[in-house]
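Data availability excerpt. The first of two example chains:
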Amino acid sequence: MTPLEDLFPPQIRCVFSNQPPQSLDLPPAEADATRNMRAKRLREFVHGRTCARLALARLGVPECPIPVGEHRAPAWPDGIVGSISHSGNHAAAVVAHESECQGLGVDLEDNESLDESLVQMVCRPEEIDRLGRAEDKLIIAKIIFSAKECVYKCIWPTVLHFIEFQEIEILLDTEARSFSALPSFSAASHRPDQKCARPICDDRRINHFGRLYFMIDGQFGRSTLADCEGLFATPPHSAL
């Protein structure tokens, strides 16, 4: 079992790999979306889809293509929720039955500082204030970026539209290695042309969507959106 797998409850299946596949062959339904991809992007895509098919197999789902769906999100088989991420030679996929989990989000990022020019786009003013003048503030900003990516992936099956970086606030507790995710918008503010299956927040917290997980260079984190609490873990780095 890999460190990432060890973070998940038994009803969720995941595959983590730092060994990119040698073959770039894909089912036709997936290959259609890769025709204009550069070699690096294609290898990452194949790596992510390979992890996803292995994760589905562990869930008991027969082998099937995972085409690119609406807004470039993976089109999972009926009754399945999942998430895919890749970064360099690393890739991961998590899947579950929709009856067990309403959403999943996973994100892999290199342990590098967030480009300073992106901080104001990614971080809300409150988040920037909390960064202060810390020496590692751009690394912390990268963690905030990664956590928000997880949130977006996790709630996508429910909201079915993009959420801006400024619409989610991440509260990090670096000493406890934990975080919370708070919505900074109202479901009532959505434009009429945006699809929304149900309200996506209560008075102040995201609710009942599922789980989100991320990794930054071997450091894995998780947050359960049901209670908006998170926990970091730092297991040894390992391969698939």
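And the second chain:
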Amino acid sequence: MADQKISELTALTGANVADDDTIAIVDTSATETKKIVFSELKNALDTATGFVRITGDTMTGDLTVPNVVVSGNVDGRDVSVDGTKLDGIAAGANVGIPATGGTMTGNLSMGDNNKIIMGAGSDLQLYHDGSSSIIYDSGTGNLQLTSSGTGVDIQKAGGEKMATFVIDGASTLYYDNAAKLATTSTGIAVTGGVYLGGTGSANKLDDYEEGTWTLGVTIGGSAQTLSGPVATYTKFGNTVSIRLRVSFNKSGSGVVNITGLPFASASGATVSVPIGCQVGSVTSTAGLFANIDNSTTIVHLADQAGDLTDADLASTAVIFSSFTYQA
């Protein structure tokens, strides 16, 4: 073969290069020309440093390319499918929350009926259905709200109270930010009254109490010295039930009254109720009555003939009665 200039040689394309084709190399350090077959050149490039080996390699620097076109999978992922999903993520978004946990620095915004689901069996769900915000427990246990602080409050936007639950203390229900029902160490406390069978004033039960009262007896306005008085009451709403028993040695003269009822009788609520006495305590043979005038705490004793006076009593009198009046 005659010598030719390099410019006169036939150019080979990649498809026409065979492993046994020979390549001439000028060794400038030895001022001589050497040859190498194509297969040896490929092996040299694959084993030498400073190159990315065609059999695979690890890069220690940056690789800058304008575009990467992949027709198959990358590390088992279909890039064409995943790329469509990535296109919907806003530029600059942090899309990585580690499976072991992470911290978000922004809001998690979810649409209606998109749920936060917890538990192996979707046991707890939090979502908004377009009308209401829902905490849905579909598990087999209880839905618990636990506090290790001072308590739990349910509030209207703006801070108005609807219900409060104090640790080791009262549970209180509110109406328009005003406490109405609260638990106590001995029961419950009601503010404003209880309405039975309706919401009108006639249905209101606004008081219940029981106790003792200071019973007194006067004759002609003079207080008598009493022995072993018993005086108790029960008040249910505006109805007062009285139980009394008293013994005294009479002194003075005039009309006999019992004083000190625990509540004044209601206006226009004059009542007359029978009372009893120990045999021999009263000389009158007519029936005895207790008359309670309206708006007073005084009981006037009388018989069918009129007011009871000292003249109708024995020197020692024992009077007893149980009656009810309106306060």
